[in-house]
Design goal:
The chain has 461 residues and is mostly helical. Helices cover 61% and strands 6% of the residues. It has three domains: 106 residues, Orthogonal Bundle (Fumarase C, Chain B, domain 1); 262 residues, Fumarase C, Chain A, domain 2, CATH 1.20.200.10; 43 residues. Helix 3 crosses helix 9, helix 7 packs parallel to helix 12 and helix 8 runs antiparallel to helix 10. The protein is elongated, with a radius of gyration of 28 Å. The protein starts with a strand and ends in a 9-residue tail after the last helix. The structure holds arginine. The site of arginine has 10 residues, from helix 7.
Length: 461
Protein backbone atom coordinates (compact mmCIF):
# COMPACT_ATOMS: atom_id res chain seq x y z
CA UNK A 1 0.00 0.00 0.00
CA UNK A 2 1.12 3.57 -0.73
CA UNK A 3 2.36 5.48 2.31
CA UNK A 4 -0.18 8.19 1.64
CA UNK A 5 -0.07 11.95 1.53
CA UNK A 6 1.96 13.77 4.17
CA UNK A 7 -0.14 15.96 6.47
CA UNK A 8 0.63 17.70 9.76
CA UNK A 9 -1.05 14.78 11.49
CA UNK A 10 0.27 11.73 9.64
CA UNK A 11 0.47 10.07 6.24
CA UNK A 12 -3.04 9.56 4.90
CA UNK A 13 -4.23 7.70 1.82
CA UNK A 14 -5.35 10.39 -0.67
CA UNK A 15 -8.82 8.85 -1.15
CA UNK A 16 -9.33 8.64 2.61
CA UNK A 17 -8.07 12.18 3.00
CA UNK A 18 -10.49 13.45 0.35
CA UNK A 19 -13.42 11.49 1.80
CA UNK A 20 -12.82 12.56 5.38
CA UNK A 21 -12.05 16.20 4.60
CA UNK A 22 -15.30 16.27 2.64
CA UNK A 23 -16.37 19.84 1.93
CA UNK A 24 -14.15 21.33 4.64
CA UNK A 25 -11.65 22.88 2.25
CA UNK A 26 -14.43 25.08 0.83
CA UNK A 27 -16.66 25.52 3.89
CA UNK A 28 -13.78 26.43 6.19
CA UNK A 29 -12.96 29.43 4.05
CA UNK A 30 -15.64 31.37 5.92
CA UNK A 31 -13.97 30.35 9.20
CA UNK A 32 -10.47 31.68 8.44
CA UNK A 33 -10.93 34.94 10.34
CA UNK A 34 -12.60 33.44 13.39
CA UNK A 35 -10.03 30.63 13.47
CA UNK A 36 -7.25 33.21 13.65
CA UNK A 37 -9.16 35.13 16.33
CA UNK A 38 -9.61 31.97 18.41
CA UNK A 39 -5.90 31.22 18.12
CA UNK A 40 -5.03 34.78 19.17
CA UNK A 41 -7.03 34.30 22.38
CA UNK A 42 -5.50 30.88 23.07
CA UNK A 43 -1.93 32.14 22.57
CA UNK A 44 -2.60 35.23 24.72
CA UNK A 45 -3.84 32.99 27.51
CA UNK A 46 -0.84 30.62 27.08
CA UNK A 47 1.55 33.58 27.35
CA UNK A 48 -0.01 34.47 30.72
CA UNK A 49 0.05 30.91 32.06
CA UNK A 50 2.08 30.60 35.28
CA UNK A 51 4.86 28.20 34.19
CA UNK A 52 8.56 28.17 35.21
CA UNK A 53 9.45 28.87 31.56
CA UNK A 54 6.69 30.71 29.71
CA UNK A 55 5.42 29.08 26.50
CA UNK A 56 5.34 32.48 24.83
CA UNK A 57 6.92 35.66 26.10
CA UNK A 58 4.81 38.75 25.70
CA UNK A 59 6.91 39.77 22.66
CA UNK A 60 6.46 36.33 21.09
CA UNK A 61 2.73 36.48 21.72
CA UNK A 62 2.63 39.81 19.87
CA UNK A 63 4.57 38.25 16.98
CA UNK A 64 2.07 35.39 16.71
CA UNK A 65 -0.88 37.78 16.83
CA UNK A 66 0.69 40.01 14.17
CA UNK A 67 1.14 36.93 11.97
CA UNK A 68 -2.50 35.97 12.56
CA UNK A 69 -3.63 39.45 11.51
CA UNK A 70 -1.48 39.07 8.38
CA UNK A 71 -3.23 35.78 7.60
CA UNK A 72 -6.60 37.52 7.91
CA UNK A 73 -5.40 40.26 5.56
CA UNK A 74 -4.05 37.68 3.08
CA UNK A 75 -7.36 35.88 3.23
CA UNK A 76 -9.28 39.07 2.50
CA UNK A 77 -7.06 39.64 -0.54
CA UNK A 78 -7.74 36.08 -1.69
CA UNK A 79 -4.19 34.95 -0.94
CA UNK A 80 -4.76 32.42 1.82
CA UNK A 81 -5.02 28.80 0.80
CA UNK A 82 -6.40 25.75 2.55
CA UNK A 83 -4.58 22.86 0.89
CA UNK A 84 -5.82 19.30 0.54
CA UNK A 85 -3.17 18.05 2.95
CA UNK A 86 -4.34 20.61 5.55
CA UNK A 87 -7.75 18.91 5.69
CA UNK A 88 -9.25 22.00 7.28
CA UNK A 89 -8.69 25.64 8.23
CA UNK A 90 -7.14 24.78 11.59
CA UNK A 91 -4.13 22.97 10.18
CA UNK A 92 -3.86 25.46 7.31
CA UNK A 93 -3.42 28.29 9.84
CA UNK A 94 -0.94 26.28 11.93
CA UNK A 95 1.07 25.35 8.82
CA UNK A 96 1.20 28.99 7.73
CA UNK A 97 2.20 30.22 11.18
CA UNK A 98 4.98 27.63 11.35
CA UNK A 99 6.21 28.58 7.88
CA UNK A 100 6.35 32.22 8.89
CA UNK A 101 7.44 31.97 12.53
CA UNK A 102 9.22 28.60 12.86
CA UNK A 103 9.09 27.12 16.36
CA UNK A 104 6.64 29.75 17.59
CA UNK A 105 4.11 28.41 15.10
CA UNK A 106 4.71 24.87 16.28
CA UNK A 107 3.83 25.90 19.84
CA UNK A 108 0.40 27.40 19.27
CA UNK A 109 -1.45 24.07 19.46
CA UNK A 110 -0.27 23.44 23.04
CA UNK A 111 -3.18 22.41 25.25
CA UNK A 112 -5.95 22.47 22.66
CA UNK A 113 -7.43 20.26 19.95
CA UNK A 114 -9.08 20.88 16.62
CA UNK A 115 -12.39 19.95 18.23
CA UNK A 116 -11.81 22.93 20.49
CA UNK A 117 -10.99 25.11 17.52
CA UNK A 118 -13.89 24.18 15.30
CA UNK A 119 -16.31 24.57 18.21
CA UNK A 120 -15.08 28.05 19.06
CA UNK A 121 -14.86 29.06 15.38
CA UNK A 122 -18.47 28.10 14.77
CA UNK A 123 -19.66 30.02 17.82
CA UNK A 124 -17.83 33.17 16.75
CA UNK A 125 -19.14 32.72 13.21
CA UNK A 126 -22.66 32.16 14.54
CA UNK A 127 -22.41 35.21 16.78
CA UNK A 128 -21.58 37.44 13.82
CA UNK A 129 -24.29 35.87 11.65
CA UNK A 130 -26.94 36.03 14.38
CA UNK A 131 -26.26 39.71 15.01
CA UNK A 132 -26.78 40.40 11.30
CA UNK A 133 -29.91 38.27 11.19
CA UNK A 134 -31.39 39.80 14.36
CA UNK A 135 -30.99 43.23 12.82
CA UNK A 136 -32.48 42.28 9.45
CA UNK A 137 -35.42 40.50 11.04
CA UNK A 138 -36.14 43.46 13.33
CA UNK A 139 -35.87 45.79 10.32
CA UNK A 140 -38.27 43.58 8.42
CA UNK A 141 -40.74 43.67 11.30
CA UNK A 142 -40.46 47.47 11.21
CA UNK A 143 -41.15 47.54 7.46
CA UNK A 144 -44.32 45.53 8.04
CA UNK A 145 -45.35 47.75 10.96
CA UNK A 146 -44.87 50.92 8.91
CA UNK A 147 -46.98 49.41 6.13
CA UNK A 148 -49.59 48.34 8.68
CA UNK A 149 -49.82 51.77 10.25
CA UNK A 150 -50.03 53.52 6.87
CA UNK A 151 -52.88 51.21 5.89
CA UNK A 152 -54.55 50.81 9.23
CA UNK A 153 -57.88 52.00 7.82
CA UNK A 154 -57.73 50.29 4.44
CA UNK A 155 -60.43 47.61 4.28
CA UNK A 156 -59.60 43.98 3.67
CA UNK A 157 -61.78 40.90 3.92
CA UNK A 158 -60.59 38.78 6.80
CA UNK A 159 -60.47 35.16 5.66
CA UNK A 160 -60.61 31.72 7.24
CA UNK A 161 -60.18 28.64 5.01
CA UNK A 162 -59.35 31.38 2.46
CA UNK A 163 -63.10 32.11 2.34
CA UNK A 164 -64.35 35.65 3.08
CA UNK A 165 -65.07 35.77 6.82
CA UNK A 166 -65.22 39.18 8.50
CA UNK A 167 -64.46 42.81 7.77
CA UNK A 168 -60.87 43.63 8.59
CA UNK A 169 -58.01 45.94 7.62
CA UNK A 170 -54.68 45.77 5.86
CA UNK A 171 -53.26 47.10 9.12
CA UNK A 172 -54.37 44.01 11.01
CA UNK A 173 -53.03 41.69 8.31
CA UNK A 174 -49.58 43.30 8.04
CA UNK A 175 -49.06 43.77 11.76
CA UNK A 176 -50.02 40.13 12.37
CA UNK A 177 -47.09 39.04 10.21
CA UNK A 178 -44.91 41.61 12.00
CA UNK A 179 -45.84 40.37 15.47
CA UNK A 180 -45.02 36.81 14.43
CA UNK A 181 -41.51 37.98 13.55
CA UNK A 182 -41.24 39.87 16.85
CA UNK A 183 -41.96 36.64 18.73
CA UNK A 184 -39.43 34.82 16.52
CA UNK A 185 -36.89 37.48 17.46
CA UNK A 186 -37.28 36.53 21.12
CA UNK A 187 -36.43 32.94 20.23
CA UNK A 188 -33.48 34.13 18.18
CA UNK A 189 -32.19 36.20 21.08
CA UNK A 190 -32.37 33.14 23.32
CA UNK A 191 -30.46 31.14 20.68
CA UNK A 192 -27.91 33.97 20.64
CA UNK A 193 -27.51 33.69 24.41
CA UNK A 194 -27.03 29.90 24.22
CA UNK A 195 -24.41 30.45 21.54
CA UNK A 196 -22.64 33.13 23.59
CA UNK A 197 -20.62 30.66 25.70
CA UNK A 198 -17.04 29.66 25.06
CA UNK A 199 -16.23 25.97 24.46
CA UNK A 200 -12.49 26.75 24.26
CA UNK A 201 -10.24 24.86 26.67
CA UNK A 202 -12.12 21.60 26.42
CA UNK A 203 -9.26 20.21 24.29
CA UNK A 204 -10.32 16.76 23.12
CA UNK A 205 -13.20 16.95 25.60
CA UNK A 206 -11.35 15.90 28.75
CA UNK A 207 -9.20 18.88 29.75
CA UNK A 208 -5.38 19.14 29.80
CA UNK A 209 -2.77 18.88 32.59
CA UNK A 210 -1.85 22.55 32.23
CA UNK A 211 -3.12 25.53 34.24
CA UNK A 212 -5.12 26.94 31.31
CA UNK A 213 -7.51 29.79 32.11
CA UNK A 214 -10.79 29.17 30.32
CA UNK A 215 -12.48 32.24 31.80
CA UNK A 216 -9.69 34.36 30.33
CA UNK A 217 -10.05 33.04 26.75
CA UNK A 218 -13.82 33.34 27.05
CA UNK A 219 -13.46 36.98 28.09
CA UNK A 220 -10.80 37.76 25.46
CA UNK A 221 -13.23 36.54 22.78
CA UNK A 222 -16.18 38.50 24.18
CA UNK A 223 -18.25 35.48 25.26
CA UNK A 224 -20.57 35.83 28.26
CA UNK A 225 -18.86 32.88 30.00
CA UNK A 226 -17.24 29.50 29.31
CA UNK A 227 -19.31 26.33 29.02
CA UNK A 228 -18.39 24.74 32.34
CA UNK A 229 -17.97 20.96 31.84
CA UNK A 230 -15.28 20.19 29.25
CA UNK A 231 -17.00 17.06 27.94
CA UNK A 232 -20.26 18.94 27.58
CA UNK A 233 -18.33 21.73 25.82
CA UNK A 234 -17.36 19.24 23.13
CA UNK A 235 -20.88 17.80 22.99
CA UNK A 236 -22.44 21.25 22.73
CA UNK A 237 -21.22 21.29 19.12
CA UNK A 238 -24.23 20.34 17.05
CA UNK A 239 -26.60 21.12 19.90
CA UNK A 240 -26.11 24.83 19.44
CA UNK A 241 -26.38 24.54 15.65
CA UNK A 242 -29.57 22.54 16.05
CA UNK A 243 -31.19 25.13 18.33
CA UNK A 244 -30.27 27.95 15.99
CA UNK A 245 -31.57 26.07 12.93
CA UNK A 246 -34.85 25.36 14.67
CA UNK A 247 -35.32 29.06 15.30
CA UNK A 248 -34.33 29.81 11.71
CA UNK A 249 -36.95 27.31 10.57
CA UNK A 250 -39.53 29.15 12.63
CA UNK A 251 -38.55 32.47 11.05
CA UNK A 252 -38.82 30.90 7.61
CA UNK A 253 -42.21 29.45 8.48
CA UNK A 254 -43.36 32.92 9.53
CA UNK A 255 -42.16 34.61 6.35
CA UNK A 256 -43.35 31.62 4.31
CA UNK A 257 -46.92 32.30 5.38
CA UNK A 258 -46.56 35.93 4.41
CA UNK A 259 -45.13 34.82 1.06
CA UNK A 260 -48.08 32.53 0.43
CA UNK A 261 -50.51 35.37 1.21
CA UNK A 262 -48.60 37.58 -1.21
CA UNK A 263 -48.68 35.03 -4.02
CA UNK A 264 -52.46 34.92 -3.69
CA UNK A 265 -53.01 38.64 -3.28
CA UNK A 266 -50.94 39.70 -6.31
CA UNK A 267 -52.92 37.26 -8.51
CA UNK A 268 -55.07 39.35 -10.89
CA UNK A 269 -58.15 37.52 -9.56
CA UNK A 270 -57.49 39.16 -6.19
CA UNK A 271 -55.50 42.16 -7.40
CA UNK A 272 -55.01 43.53 -3.87
CA UNK A 273 -51.37 44.38 -4.50
CA UNK A 274 -49.07 45.01 -7.41
CA UNK A 275 -45.34 44.45 -7.18
CA UNK A 276 -43.08 46.94 -8.96
CA UNK A 277 -41.81 45.17 -12.07
CA UNK A 278 -38.19 45.31 -10.86
CA UNK A 279 -39.22 42.84 -8.16
CA UNK A 280 -40.89 40.41 -10.57
CA UNK A 281 -39.45 38.12 -13.16
CA UNK A 282 -40.77 37.70 -16.67
CA UNK A 283 -41.33 34.72 -18.91
CA UNK A 284 -39.17 33.80 -21.89
CA UNK A 285 -42.23 32.99 -23.97
CA UNK A 286 -45.16 35.01 -22.55
CA UNK A 287 -44.42 38.71 -22.94
CA UNK A 288 -47.07 39.83 -20.46
CA UNK A 289 -45.83 37.86 -17.45
CA UNK A 290 -44.84 39.48 -14.13
CA UNK A 291 -44.23 36.63 -11.76
CA UNK A 292 -43.80 36.84 -7.98
CA UNK A 293 -40.83 34.45 -7.96
CA UNK A 294 -39.28 35.90 -4.80
CA UNK A 295 -42.30 34.79 -2.79
CA UNK A 296 -42.35 31.37 -4.42
CA UNK A 297 -38.69 30.85 -3.59
CA UNK A 298 -39.31 32.07 -0.05
CA UNK A 299 -41.95 29.36 0.23
CA UNK A 300 -39.57 26.70 -1.12
CA UNK A 301 -36.60 27.89 0.92
CA UNK A 302 -38.59 27.65 4.10
CA UNK A 303 -38.58 23.91 3.37
CA UNK A 304 -34.86 24.05 2.64
CA UNK A 305 -34.10 25.61 6.04
CA UNK A 306 -36.36 23.12 7.76
CA UNK A 307 -34.43 20.34 6.04
CA UNK A 308 -31.13 21.86 7.22
CA UNK A 309 -32.47 21.64 10.78
CA UNK A 310 -33.54 18.04 10.19
CA UNK A 311 -30.15 17.14 8.72
CA UNK A 312 -28.47 18.35 11.91
CA UNK A 313 -30.90 16.71 14.31
CA UNK A 314 -30.63 13.52 12.23
CA UNK A 315 -26.87 13.50 12.77
CA UNK A 316 -27.23 14.19 16.51
CA UNK A 317 -29.88 11.56 17.09
CA UNK A 318 -28.23 8.43 18.44
CA UNK A 319 -24.75 10.02 18.58
CA UNK A 320 -22.79 8.93 21.66
CA UNK A 321 -21.12 11.49 23.94
CA UNK A 322 -17.70 12.95 23.13
CA UNK A 323 -16.45 14.22 19.79
CA UNK A 324 -17.50 12.17 16.77
CA UNK A 325 -16.45 12.98 13.22
CA UNK A 326 -20.15 12.92 12.28
CA UNK A 327 -20.29 16.43 13.73
CA UNK A 328 -18.30 17.73 10.77
CA UNK A 329 -21.40 17.11 8.66
CA UNK A 330 -23.44 19.61 10.67
CA UNK A 331 -21.32 22.43 9.31
CA UNK A 332 -22.78 22.60 5.77
CA UNK A 333 -26.49 22.64 6.76
CA UNK A 334 -25.72 25.12 9.54
CA UNK A 335 -24.06 27.55 7.17
CA UNK A 336 -26.69 26.98 4.51
CA UNK A 337 -29.59 27.58 6.90
CA UNK A 338 -28.06 30.84 8.11
CA UNK A 339 -27.41 32.04 4.58
CA UNK A 340 -30.86 31.19 3.24
CA UNK A 341 -32.67 32.79 6.17
CA UNK A 342 -30.60 35.96 6.06
CA UNK A 343 -30.97 36.35 2.28
CA UNK A 344 -34.73 35.82 2.51
CA UNK A 345 -35.34 38.30 5.31
CA UNK A 346 -33.19 40.83 3.49
CA UNK A 347 -34.69 40.51 0.00
CA UNK A 348 -38.28 40.74 1.24
CA UNK A 349 -37.90 44.17 2.84
CA UNK A 350 -37.81 46.36 -0.31
CA UNK A 351 -40.61 44.26 -1.82
CA UNK A 352 -42.92 44.83 1.10
CA UNK A 353 -42.08 48.52 1.43
CA UNK A 354 -42.84 49.28 -2.21
CA UNK A 355 -46.08 47.37 -2.68
CA UNK A 356 -48.74 49.19 -4.66
CA UNK A 357 -52.03 48.81 -2.84
CA UNK A 358 -55.23 48.62 -4.87
CA UNK A 359 -57.74 49.91 -2.40
CA UNK A 360 -60.74 49.44 -4.68
CA UNK A 361 -59.91 45.75 -5.21
CA UNK A 362 -59.57 45.33 -1.45
CA UNK A 363 -62.88 47.10 -0.93
CA UNK A 364 -64.54 44.99 -3.64
CA UNK A 365 -63.35 41.89 -1.78
CA UNK A 366 -65.40 42.97 1.22
CA UNK A 367 -68.60 41.34 -0.02
CA UNK A 368 -71.83 41.72 1.96
CA UNK A 369 -71.71 38.27 3.56
CA UNK A 370 -68.67 39.20 5.69
CA UNK A 371 -70.93 41.42 7.83
CA UNK A 372 -73.03 38.44 8.95
CA UNK A 373 -71.41 38.04 12.36
CA UNK A 374 -71.55 41.78 13.06
CA UNK A 375 -75.28 41.76 12.23
CA UNK A 376 -75.87 38.79 14.53
CA UNK A 377 -74.09 40.61 17.35
CA UNK A 378 -76.24 43.69 16.77
CA UNK A 379 -79.29 41.49 17.31
CA UNK A 380 -77.66 40.13 20.47
CA UNK A 381 -77.30 43.73 21.68
CA UNK A 382 -81.06 44.05 21.21
CA UNK A 383 -81.56 41.07 23.51
CA UNK A 384 -81.80 38.18 21.00
CA UNK A 385 -79.94 35.02 22.19
CA UNK A 386 -76.87 34.49 19.96
CA UNK A 387 -78.03 31.20 18.37
CA UNK A 388 -81.38 32.70 17.39
CA UNK A 389 -79.63 35.76 15.97
CA UNK A 390 -77.30 33.46 14.01
CA UNK A 391 -80.28 31.63 12.46
CA UNK A 392 -82.05 34.89 11.58
CA UNK A 393 -79.00 36.35 9.82
CA UNK A 394 -78.56 33.13 7.89
CA UNK A 395 -82.17 33.30 6.71
CA UNK A 396 -81.97 36.98 5.65
CA UNK A 397 -78.74 37.44 3.63
CA UNK A 398 -80.07 40.54 1.87
CA UNK A 399 -80.12 42.48 5.14
CA UNK A 400 -76.30 42.63 5.00
CA UNK A 401 -76.01 44.95 1.98
CA UNK A 402 -74.69 48.49 2.09
CA UNK A 403 -72.32 48.40 5.05
CA UNK A 404 -68.95 50.11 5.22
CA UNK A 405 -66.13 47.63 5.87
CA UNK A 406 -63.77 50.18 7.43
CA UNK A 407 -66.35 51.35 9.94
CA UNK A 408 -67.24 47.76 10.72
CA UNK A 409 -63.62 46.73 11.23
CA UNK A 410 -62.66 49.77 13.28
CA UNK A 411 -65.59 49.19 15.63
CA UNK A 412 -63.58 46.27 16.99
CA UNK A 413 -61.56 48.20 19.50
CA UNK A 414 -60.50 45.67 22.09
CA UNK A 415 -56.83 44.79 22.40
CA UNK A 416 -55.29 43.65 19.13
CA UNK A 417 -58.45 44.03 17.04
CA UNK A 418 -58.36 46.24 13.89
CA UNK A 419 -59.38 49.31 15.92
CA UNK A 420 -57.27 48.41 18.94
CA UNK A 421 -53.79 47.83 17.55
CA UNK A 422 -50.94 49.23 19.63
CA UNK A 423 -48.43 50.01 16.91
CA UNK A 424 -46.18 51.91 19.32
CA UNK A 425 -45.77 48.88 21.59
CA UNK A 426 -45.01 46.62 18.63
CA UNK A 427 -42.50 49.10 17.26
CA UNK A 428 -40.82 49.31 20.66
CA UNK A 429 -40.20 45.57 20.63
CA UNK A 430 -38.43 45.85 17.26
CA UNK A 431 -36.40 48.85 18.46
CA UNK A 432 -35.28 47.08 21.61
CA UNK A 433 -33.90 44.21 19.50
CA UNK A 434 -31.98 46.73 17.40
CA UNK A 435 -30.58 48.34 20.58
CA UNK A 436 -29.50 44.88 21.77
CA UNK A 437 -27.75 44.19 18.44
CA UNK A 438 -25.97 47.56 18.53
CA UNK A 439 -24.72 47.03 22.07
CA UNK A 440 -23.56 43.48 21.39
CA UNK A 441 -21.84 44.41 18.13
CA UNK A 442 -19.90 47.28 19.68
CA UNK A 443 -18.91 45.11 22.62
CA UNK A 444 -17.75 42.25 20.37
CA UNK A 445 -15.77 44.49 18.05
CA UNK A 446 -14.08 46.21 21.01
CA UNK A 447 -13.02 42.87 22.48
CA UNK A 448 -11.61 41.54 19.22
CA UNK A 449 -9.86 44.85 18.48
CA UNK A 450 -8.23 44.70 21.89
CA UNK A 451 -7.18 41.10 21.32
CA UNK A 452 -5.70 41.68 17.85
CA UNK A 453 -4.18 45.08 18.63
CA UNK A 454 -5.85 46.53 15.51
CA UNK A 455 -9.39 47.78 14.94
CA UNK A 456 -11.75 44.95 14.07
CA UNK A 457 -13.30 44.35 11.61
CA UNK A 458 -11.44 47.00 9.60
CA UNK A 459 -7.96 45.82 10.69
CA UNK A 460 -6.61 49.37 10.90
CA UNK A 461 -4.83 50.97 13.85
N1 LIG B 1 -13.08 19.30 10.39
C1 LIG B 1 -13.29 18.73 11.67
C2 LIG B 1 -14.74 18.92 12.12
O1 LIG B 1 -15.41 19.75 11.58
C3 LIG B 1 -12.35 19.38 12.63
C4 LIG B 1 -12.15 18.56 13.87
C5 LIG B 1 -11.39 17.34 13.57
N2 LIG B 1 -11.21 16.61 14.78
C6 LIG B 1 -10.87 15.32 14.82
N3 LIG B 1 -10.77 14.77 15.98
N4 LIG B 1 -10.66 14.64 13.72
O2 LIG B 1 -15.20 18.25 12.99
Amino acid sequence: MKRGEKTLVGQIDPAVLAYTAGEDMQLDRVLVEVDCIGTAAHVTMLSEMPLPTPLFTSVEKDQVIAALVEIIRDHRRGHFEIQAADQDVHLAVERTLTKRLGDLGKRVHTGRSRNDQVAVDLRLFAKEQLLLLLRETADFAKVLLTFAEQHKEVPMAGRTHLQPAMPSTLGLWASAHAESLLDDLELLQEAYRQNDRSPLGSAAGYGVPLPIDRARTSDLLGFARPIHNVLYASMARGRCENIILMVLSQIMLSVGRLAEDMILYVMPEFGYFRLPSAYCTGSSIMPQKQNPDVFELTRARSSDVLSCALRVSGILKGLPGGYQRDLQETKAPFMEGLRLTYDTVKVLQPLMSSLEVNESALRAGCIAEIFATDRALELVADGVPFRDAYDRVKAEPDALEGRDPVMAAMQKQHEGAPGGLDFAALRKRAESTIDFVNRETVCYHEKISMLLGVGYPVLEK
